[in-house]
């Protein structure tokens, strides 16, 4: 885990939102065997690596908007918790939207939040950066709003977000 990256994400959060955040690190992963079989109930042999996603998160004072800042891309995205739908060509935004939408389906009460994230996983390296982002968001929301989700429940929410928001968008683009 890069101490420099942690410092940059935390500083960016404090500059954007003027408060102290909860800090989360989700390590990248490689599959020694079984690439793309884990989500089809196949066998996989994953291992964590020292690169990943650093995410800072806090409750928001804004009663309507969630604000997510992707530090690597220098992009801010705002959305409401109501009527969440996948964005065409939404990229990283759909990971966040998917997690919140799937979490809401469980009936849990999710308030608004602010977050900044960045990662040092090499792009296109097939190291599950999407899962790290989704897992960081669900873990942060579980902690912030005291939702009481188990690790297994959080993983299933992340998995459903991927299937219902990302895979759906990929098929629509063909």
Structure description:
- With 174 residues, this protein is α+β, with helices and mostly antiparallel strands.
- It has a single domain (3-173), classed as Ribosomal Protein S5, domain 2.
- It contains four helices and five strands.
- It has a five-stranded mixed beta sheet, sandwiched between helices.
- A hairpin with a 4-residue loop joins strand 3 (65-70) and strand 4 (75-80).
- Helix 2 crosses helix 4 (151-173) and helix 3 crosses helix 4 (151-173).
- Residues 170-174 have low confidence and may be disordered.
Q: Describe the main β-sheet briefly.
A: 5 strands, mixed
Number of helices: 4
Calculate the mean pLDDT score and round it: 86
Low-confidence stretches: 170-174
Spatial arrangement of strands, main beta sheet:
1-2-5-3-4
Radius of gyration: 15 Å
User: What portion of residues is helical?
Assistant: 25-40%
From the helix content, strand content and strand pairing, which structural class follows?
Answer: alpha+beta
Q: Estimate what percentage of residues fall within beta strands.
A: 15-25%
């Amino acid at each position: 885990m890069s101490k420099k990256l942690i410092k940059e994400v935390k500083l960016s959060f404090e500059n954007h939102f003027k408060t102290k955040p909860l800090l989360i690190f989700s390590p990248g992963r490689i599959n020694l065997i079984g690439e793309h079989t884990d989500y089809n109930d196949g066998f996989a042999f994953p291992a964590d690596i020292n690169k990943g996603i650093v995410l800072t998160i806090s409750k928001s004072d804004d009663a309507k908007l969630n604000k997510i800042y992707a530090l690597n891309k220098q992009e801010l995205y705002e959305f409401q918790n109501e009527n969440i739908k996948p964005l065409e060509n939404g990229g990283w935004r759909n990971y966040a939207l998917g997690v919140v939408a799937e979490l809401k389906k469980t009936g849990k009460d999710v308030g608004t939040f602010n977050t900044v994230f960045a990662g040092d996983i090499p792009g296109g390296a097939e190291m599950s950066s999407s899962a790290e982002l989704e897992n960081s968001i669900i873990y942060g929301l579980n902690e912030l709003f005291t939702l009481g989700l188990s690790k297994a429940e959080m993983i299933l929410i992340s998995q459903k977000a991927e299937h219902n928001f990302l895979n759906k968008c990929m098929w629509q683009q063909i």
